[in-house]
Hints:
- The structure holds two protein chains of two kinds.
- Chain A is of the alpha+beta class.
- Chain A has helices at 2-8, 19-34, 37-56, 64-73, 77-83, 93-122, 148-161, 184-210, 416-420, 466-485, 519-533, and strands at residues 137-144, 165-170, 176-182, 212-219, 226-227, 235-238, 250-261, 267-278, 285-290, 295-297, 300-316, 322-326, 330-331, 338-344, 362-370, 391-399, 424-433, 438-440, 446-462, 489-497, 504-512.
- Chain A contains eleven helices and 21 strands.
- In chain A, strands 4, 6, 10, 11, 12, 18 and 19 form a seven-stranded antiparallel beta sheet that branches.
- In chain A, helix 3 runs antiparallel to helix 6 and helix 4 crosses helix 5 (77-83).
- At the A-B interface, helix 3, strand 1, strand 8, strand 11 and helix 10 of A face helix 7 and helix 8 of B.
Amino acid sequence: MSTVHAAExxxxxxxDGAPRNRAAGLARRSWRSLTSMRTALILLFLLAVAAxxxxxxxxxxxxxxxxxxxxxxxxxxxxWLDRLALFDVFSSPWFSAIYLLLFVSLVxxxxxxxxxxLQALLRTPPDAPAxxxxxxxxxxxxxxxxxxxxxxxxxRALLRRRRxxxxxxxxxxxxxxxxxxxxxxxxxxxxLFHFSLxxxxxxxxxxxxxxxxxNRNVIAGPDGAFCDTLQQYDDYGLGARVSPRDLPPFxxxxxxxxxxxxxxxxxxxxxxxxxxxxxxxxxxxxQSVSVNHPxxxxxxxxxxxxxxxxxxxRYTDRFGRAQTTAALxxxxxxxxxxxxxxxxxxxxxxxxxxxDPNHKQQVAFWGIYLPTAPxxxxxxxSAFPAERDPRLMLTAYRGDLGMDAGIPHSxxxxxxxxxxxxxxxxxxxxxxxxxxxxxxxxxxxxxxFLGTRPWATIAVRYDPGEKIVLVAxxxxxxxxxxxxxxxxRRVWFRVTPDGGRSVSLxxxxxxxxxxxxxxxxEFERIVSEAKGRT
Amino acid sequence: MAALxxxxxxxxxxxxxxxxxxxAAEYSFGAxxxxxxxxxxxxxxxxxxxxxxxxxxxxxxxxxxxxTPPVVAPVSPAPVSPAPVSPAGGSPxxxxxxxHGLGVAALVFTVLAALAHAGCLATRGLAAHRVPWxxxxxxxxxxxxxxxVAWLVxxxxxxxxxxxxxxxxxxxxxxxxxxxxxLYTRVAPLVPALNSYWLKIHVTLAATASGxxxxxxxxxxxHQIRAGYERGKRGFPFTLGVRLPVADNLERLTFRVHxxxxxxxxxxxxCGAIWAESAWGRYWGWDPKETWSFIAWVVYAGxxxxxxxxxxxxxxxxxxxxxxxxxxMVNLFGVNFVVHGLHxxxxx
Lengths: 534, 348
Ligand code: HEM
């Protein structure tokens, strides 16, 4: 709408206009075109187009590892795409620019409309146009047996009963016009919708400032318990206004975890029992948590996301010392073929001599775990996600694990630098073990596969903007329904005296102010009612 | 039960196919009368102009006020009136009646097919002991059923839109055929993420909105065809426009169907977000499915906007509605097959 105006009224700068005036004119013009419907339309379209790459390319906010893989697989295009923020589309400057401009345009559009609407609510309906016959619906030649004043009163009463807002105006010729308008709720709904969009954006922003989240893979059992501090999470994200001290105090432990499957491998149900303590209360409470049923704590929700197996491995070293570890293996496919490493950094230390830093004999096993071994052993994948016929394939490594260097590295893989430099060496051939099996390495040490323990990814999240967003979404739908079902229309009657006799001539017309069905029918009903009454 | 469901699918597809043939026969037999009707319409033009902006369905009753002689000339914007105005040669009554018979047969077959279709979905739900929209095959079944019902409701309330039936039936046959051949999955329980009462709410809303939007899409495309025809284009596919309701009425229909479906789609997305919060811990995460739902929503919002923008032509606006449907289809097929996200559908 405003674009039309902007085009119609060329902002002629006065010829002697000072630069300041020109700048102000330019600003006013830019503002006007920014807040025009046409600009809003273009920005909406840009927003839709800009979201597309976010669904086609891997995104960091969804899966960081896929992004790294993608960049590694596309060495030329990858870095360029990265520079254009195409792996972070929804937090990229260009995406933000589009929606911020859209919302600025929205404010510039709806605030004046709110003012206009309030004025319209206070104002009486405008007088009838000069030529009623030009209106989309029109009926002439109605008569009223009585003077114009009584006719106008009767029509006014009729329209009032139909809940129109009515104004009666006396005309110079002794006649009257009756103006009526109805359906103000439509614009109210429309404004409610657009203001709810602003509230929704605010809710999203609020959540990202004051919310936080953390993830941790937890092995079932007391030794997997953890408390809500940043060091305890595998990865986390804090909102801009959140400091680590703001995290609510609680501790969580995964007591048990169950998964069940159909025969075709489709998962049926995942559930874990979690015991937790909140604050200083030492009394642990228990709750079952499953995919659609999170544990809701004050200021934090606890979700169960992924899950897998942690093989329990016992290694007995040259000096007869046995150590046991549950190594968390990451699943690689839907049948839970999993891989990981079990490390024994304290192995083979001569109790009499102590650690010899130049001749470390640390031990690690790299392994693949198949919960159900395939019937064809050449297939390297598990046949089923549950443990029907488990196999653990272990490859032993001995030497320096490279753990003391202080360089953090993944606990799910071995340090490739140590292997390629020869400081960590492969020992013997891979071993295939069933639960309870053991194998002996070349130096006479022994490794045993004791069984597995389940683990689950526990995600803890807090988003204080959620409630704002929910309220905004509710209002948004409400506004939309009111606006889209609303029908704004005006009806006029013109009553003219018929040459001094006590008869008045009546003419009726109506104008729908938006497009809706049933307008004509309603007008006909009003007219026939008017005929019965006048 | 599952086998019965599969058989009913075949019955439903055949039913829609027969309905389509009836619509098509009505369409092509009627072409003879079309010339006369176009002439009649041209003569009636001024009258029509006077009623522009007044409710679309009542063009014939446009004269108002009992004191003027009612109805100047029956101006029917929809070409399939029971008795076409003097077709060239032949007995007008017969042709009219035959056409009418075909049209009614088409509707009867549509109703029968929709019944089989509903039976197909219901037996599937009985076989699986759950709501029958837990995977993509079932979702498409539900969307097309909603579309068929929406179409029948529309055509009962406004008989003049019947020529659209050919395209609605065509779209249903294509989608159901694809569904049965490509997406078919055996009856199975739900994957854990879907096992929630939100499935009933969110997916039902999504299927309802999609089904109605499908009808809206048909109306939008036919509006473009008819508008092209009225601008004098005579190549394919504009020749199909001969028998369609006038472009303005189709445009208004397109708008109303979309205005009806848009809030439902909005609500479907909101319920999805509420579900995502309890399943994945965040209400919105730009998962591909979420992203494409957002894109489709924004495009449809753009359509409603464009229609309210005076400087945007109505037929330009209608193109945006077509783009919206493309986004819906990408969301349904593209996202499920090409990019993998969190949204799990069993068996695809
Ligand atoms: C944030 C992006 C926006 C979205 C998603 C959006 C969405 C919508 C939708 C869906 C409608 C139709 C439903 C209804 O009538 O209530 C609508 C109507 C409307 N919008 Fe927006 N809008 C946005 C921004 C804007 C902006 C920036 C303006 C002003 C330039 C604007 C002005 C209007 C007007 C005037 C109408 C009413 C049209 C009529 O008279 O029916 N909107 N909007």
